[in-house]
Amino acid sequence: MAAFDKSGYSHSETSVVAVIYKSSQDKIVISQDEVVTNNGDTKWLPYKTRNITVFRQTSTHLQMVTTFGLELVIQLWPVFQLYITVGPQFRGQTRGESHPSLPRAGPDAPP
Is the pTM of this model over 0.90? Predict the structure, then answer.
């Protein structure tokens, strides 16, 4: 998931302010100001819990890797954005929404 906030004058001018990974045991939030929390508790990097590790990849990127084939690379600067990679075991099972102002692409993207 992602959290959006208004970033301009019109209702359609929004930007991502946080990335949220949620499971039955964890709710990991990575915000644009580089704060990482799990279930509301602030965490220092590198942070590891069960099958997830979050670490600083470079001065401008954080990375979250899992043992089950999900990888997130979060660009912090100059624009906060997210790159998602999933393993081949997820082929045909992914679904999602892009921001309403962005074009949809890819075989698993909704029409």
Answer: no
Question: Is residue 98 assigned to a domain?
Answer: no
Work out how many domains the chain is built from and give that number: 1
Domain that holds residue 20: 2-89
User: Is there a domain that residue 97 lies in?
Assistant: no
Dihedral sign from CA coordinates of 42, 46, 52, 58? positive
**Mind listing the pLDDT tens digit for each residue in 27-77?**
999 998 899 999 999 999 999 999 999 999 999 999 999 999 999 999 998
- Specify which residues 24 forms β-bridges with: none
Contacts 24+ apart (CB under 8 A), 3-12: 4/99, 12/100, 12/101
| 68, 74, 81 from 105: Cα distances, Å | 24, 20, 17
